[in-house]
Amino acid sequence: MVTLLSKPLRLSARVRKSVKALLHVAAILFLAGLFYLGVTDRLGADPVDTLLHYTGIWTLISLFICLTLSPLSKHLPCGDLMRFRRMTGIYAFVFAFCHFLTYALFELQLNISLLGEEIVKRPYITVGMAALLILLALTATSTSNIRRRMGKRWQQLHNSIYLAMLLGLLHFTWSQKTFWQEPVFYWLIGLSLLILRKDKFQRLLRRRR
Amino acid sequence: MPSPFKPSVKLTDNDVTDERVYRSRRRILKQLGFVGAGALLASSTRAADWFWEDDEKKSAFQRQALTFDSPEKYQIDAEKTPYSKASTYNNFYEFGTDKSAPAERAQSLTVDPWTLKIDGMVKKPLTLDYDDLFKRFTLEERIYRLRCVEAWSMVLPWVGFELGKLINLAEPTGSARYVAFETLYDPDQMPGQNNRFMGGGIEYPYVEGLRLDEAMHPLTLMSVGLYGKTLPPQNGAPIRLTVPWKYGFKSIKSIVKITLTDKQPPTTWNRLAPDEYGFYANVNPNVDHPRWSQASERRITTGGLFARNRIETQLFNGYQEVAPMYKGMDLRRFY
Q1: Residue A7 domain-assigned (yes or no)
Q2: pTM of the prediction?
Q3: Is any Cβ of chain A less than 8 angstroms from the Cβ of B304?
Q4: Which family does it belong to (chain B) (predicted)?
Q5: Which CATH architecture fits B13-326?
Q6: Would you call A46 and B298 a contact, using CB atoms and an 8 Å cutoff?
Q7: Which residues neighbour A27 within 8 Å (Cβ) at sequence distance 6 or greater?
Q8: Number of neighbours of residue B84 by Cβ within 10 angstroms
Q9: How distant, in Å, are the alpha carbons of B76, B155, B191, B286, B318 from that of B79?
Q10: Is a pLDDT exceeding 70 seen at residue B39?
Q11: A-chain residue closest to B300, CA distance
Q12: With a cut of 0.90, is the ipTM above it?
């Protein structure tokens, strides 16, 4: 494999903390900015549509970053990159949750019966909800404590992040009126991340047999 | 009395040169094969829109003031959708599938000269040029509700004339039953037409159709203006159909041909997904689109996220006067 750095790169606790703090500030400013512009009607013609779009897109981008970190930390000699993985995964859930909140609060405007009906009746929403629930389960079991207590089952559960990504992509494509739109590019990225892991999937399949 | 059309803005040679430069830039981009990547970046231009106020707003296209009557019965009492929203939230896949793309990419569309042909089963086929569109008939302003199949709606003051008047001028023969419409096909100007990543992969030119009685209904308007001025390209300049009791995709934009026929003509969205979009496409809260409920809609006017703008959708978008045309028809089957 290509080795880009001759010496392993260590990130000190201080560097990691600062980078994380910076990412937190950026993500929170981004979300707060979006909601603020939306509330003041400065988010395009239909603020609800724009907000749905950006929270959805950033769910996928966070998932992509999260799933890029482990191959990256293998090929760059910088294992410390893995220490950012939990954070990016949790942000995927945060964005997905904001996406859902936008849908329930501003798109359907708290019409709860319509919300229930749509989740059941519209396959693309069912699929999106499934992805959200998976991300919720992964977030809820993300602490080191729970991870230790769950033992082997933790990894099994957290492998479902790939399923969440595929469901998210399907939800995105399905929400559009035609196939050949923006989601195609996201599928290409998502599928490449899976191809990078083909050995892992083959192993998993073999073990199951 | 039709009043003479006077352009309020005169273009200079400079404007023409600008446009040519703009076009050649497009062509170079296309030759480099960057248009596909451009579609990917479309969302980032949208981001730029609201993070930084863009000083040189896309002002290439000049709208001209129109003279028109305002018949009382078409002035409805509802909050209108501001022009700034109606002109930046458009489904016009010829210029990209993103709703903000047409406002960005359509500004250099050449609308003058324009030719609109009326042919097929008519005794007097005719051709209207750009000036005819505004001079041949008395223009009227009508405030119509627009209901998109995506479950949002707007209220807009169109300026135009009844399609029926135009059809009568061509004198349909006794065998004419349907009216077919066609949008301009010009991939040089409408980049989505030969780039499936930009145009969503639908078949071009965009075509639509109406039954003859629907086309002759006094509500059916050929719009040439919006908010008192000529249409901007993203809203279908120089002439488009406006059928207020049907979903927005029926109201075909930038029309170059109208053909009277005896067979039900193919329509773009029906051809793409017949189980999702019917030929009739009448607004109907009781017949859901497979992917979204049609029982209610969000009315886009002003106000941000907390605007409580979800309202019940009405059958025929509230235009009950069209109901007799569908008497005895199963509207679930003929959706």
Answers
A1: no
A2: 0.85
A3: yes
A4: Belongs to the MsrP family.
A5: Alpha-Beta Complex (3.90)
A6: yes
A7: A91, A94
A8: 12
A9: 9, 7, 35, 25, 16
A10: no
A11: A46
A12: no
